[in-house]
Write a structure and sequence with these properties.
Strands 1-2-3-5-4 form a five-stranded mixed beta sheet. It has a five-stranded mixed beta sheet with strand order 6-7-8-10-9. It has about 650 residues and is α+β, with helices and mostly antiparallel strands. Helix 1 packs antiparallel against helix 2.
Amino acid sequence: MLPGWLWWILPLIVTAVLYGLALRRTAGVAAGGVAVAVALSAGTAIALGEPARSVTGVALLAGGLGAVTWALGRARRRGRARRLALAAYRAAAPDVPGVAAEVERHRLAAELHDTAAHRLTGIVVGSASALRLADQALVEEASRHAAETGRLAVEELERLTAADTPAGRGDFTDLDALIATWPDPRLSYRRTAGSAPPEIAAVAYRVVREALTNALRYGPGGDVRVGVEHESGRLLVSVVNTPGDPAVNGGDVAHGLGGGHGLAGLRAATAACGGSLSAGPEGRGWAVRAELPLAPEDRPPYSPYWPYEWRGRQAADVALAILALALSIGTSLVTADVPEELPGEAALLVPLFAAHALPLALRRRAPLAGLAAALSVCPLLLAAGLAGWTTQPAGDVFLWCLWVELALLYAVGAYGRPALRRWGAMAPAAVAAVGGLALACGPGITGNRPAAWAVLAMGVAVPATATWALGLAVAARRGRRRTAMARERDLLGREAAAVVLAERSRLAAELRRTAQRHARAIVAAADARRLDDVLAEARAGLAALRESLDELRLQGDDPPPTIAGIALLAARHQGAVRYAGTRRAASPSVEVAAFRAAELILRHGGPEVTVACHADGAAVSGPSSSGAERRLRALADAAGGGFSQAEDGTARVWIPEVLA
């Protein structure tokens, strides 16, 4: 027989262990600890020879207390993660303008590589070939082509340094024009696709242009086959070239002119629109193939709700409902408040207690509806007592379970929708009226019961109104925090925009001094039919562009831990990020957790990551290794979300928005 004091110490020890599990381990591990504690409690009651009724009551009480302990530990775990995320978010705020400037440099680098560098490469190859063969007709044609292409390069450089946003290519007309003006005659072109969304056509254009430019640089004189085909709702783009003849352009005249980042940029572009890119040897030649969706996804490819809701923001509400069931039903079973000789009364009270407790599970989602459902139990219990079906006074039950109504009242003020606030103001009065009626009809009240009802209702109204007002105060404080955060974001955004504008102006001046000057010199030399000067200026312009590209790709500060910072993170890992859904501002906890998840996927998994933005959170997915699985699971769990892994190795992390 255990000493009496040990019966008090053991529950405290078990509670501390359960709380520690919920605080430091994932939701599943902590829930398993609660299940073990409930089983041990019931087993102890059975070993002590308690009747089945008491064993059930002990199990219910242990389950209720364990659920609340689990929820408290989980709340502390999520709160700590939110505080750390907010600290990291604010610590990185001074770096945001510098990182925005780096993002702008990466954008300009991609544009320079895809436009001016492409034009100048074509001029170099065409001029070198004509000079090598010493054919006057070819010289005339190369001069004409250099003049036209040089003017296009000048226009693109001017647009690039003056526009606020990059101008994309919208349809296959540009692609057809590119093929028609290509200087290499050994090019075959097949297009069976009639149309595509503008962003998809723009990516297809970039793929073909980059692949053709590489074919000119590294396989001049070889056969090139370009295909753009529509197949099963996808756009298939392929560029295949055979080995060239070095004698066509003097051997290595075009070698060393590339920046080495073209294919990486194409992978990022294709991944961003939901496609894929492959490039590598094929036979004796080289092949670049892209597969692009013709119908962009309107909905994010990930459902956030199931099965993770039990881990996050609904966990505390469900735990409160379990506690209410345990305190009402479990206590009655353990203390024999419901007599054994009245099994019908127990059959009536148990459903009523359950109906009163379960609305707590809707405390945040539908607080007014939950409060109405809980209050409806009191009149039913009162009617059952007047009919003689139960000996339990409705007033006693109301006082014992009043905390349920108070918890729902708090939720009405703290989580109720603004459109329903006017009805929420009536909630404390409704609780006071129902509670006063239940107390006034009790056996201890004599005399004028309506007067007693009024007095008792006023007494219940005091805690009811105070609790509702506390919820309103918490909601107002939360709103002020959100407003302050929005103001902070807006200020930071304006500062970053100013830095980007200054960086663009600086780069514009640099390009005018170097690449743009060489492009104009190319046009002048081509108009004068000085092909030697055209070739020299084109090579000098490419060298200047390459220096500019190397400077543009220099890394600055670490990317800020935000959803927008994932793009720069992916660029530094030679990877790609795809944003699905409508981009919207999120709380610092979601921003930081999404960034950390993407960072783990890019470092330990594959080169691509998808970020799906939802109104109430964000989902991050991508190929991941087993080494990152545990860390991803812990990260998602601390944020109140969840982790899953598909059979193909794709990891998915859901990070919900949580109202504090």
